[in-house]
Amino acid sequence: MLILASQSASRKAMLDAAGVAFEARSPDLDEAELKCELIAVPPGEIAGILAEAKAMAVSVGHPGRLVLGGDSLVEVGGRLFDKPKSRADAKAHLRFFSGQEMHLHSAAVLMRDGVTQWRHVDCAKLRVRGLTDSFIDSYLDSEWPAVSGCVGVFRIEARGVQLFEEITGSQFTVLGMPLLPLLAALRDLGELAA
Predict the structure, then answer these.
(1) Catalytic residue among 71, 113, 133, 141
(2) Most exposed: 12, 26, 87, 194, by fewest CB within 10 Å?
(3) Which domains are delineated in the chain?
(4) What's the pTM?
(5) In the annotation, is 30 catalytic?
(6) pLDDT tens by residue, 94-129
């Protein structure tokens, strides 16, 4: 059975819906410290490195098991954004995103015994519409604190869809994991029926 190196509700829901048997384990990893070491690295590569680090953190304690690590990063206007630390931080992020194009990089890594078996990074582009302060306040009234754990301050499957005027790329990437390439890799590795 696959081990998901994450407690992400979105990643769990995608695997459940796709019929992939898994158990979830939290990786023991200081993401903030690792990100500090990756300042000059392109966003997609950072997402891949973080996904790999999460898979490695869980893989070392589960010999012989296939471990899935995932990560998503949001980049807007050349800046990387983490999950908001507070509602005020979320409001500042949304103000910055207003009228801009968001690049959402989602990575997935499959690892066994500390050896990467497969790695994939995908990017979706989301055009944020112009957001008024009154909309942002109303949005956060209904979505906070649920979006406090979301990079980009949105859940696309909820009211977050109202932030955007156009989305280019895979819905699964936007949800936080390049699911179709992952399923293909699981079939190739004999973890799913072909």
Answers:
(1) 71
(2) 194
(3) 2-188 (3.90.950.10)
(4) 0.94
(5) no
(6) 999 999 999 999 999 999 999 999 999 999 999 999
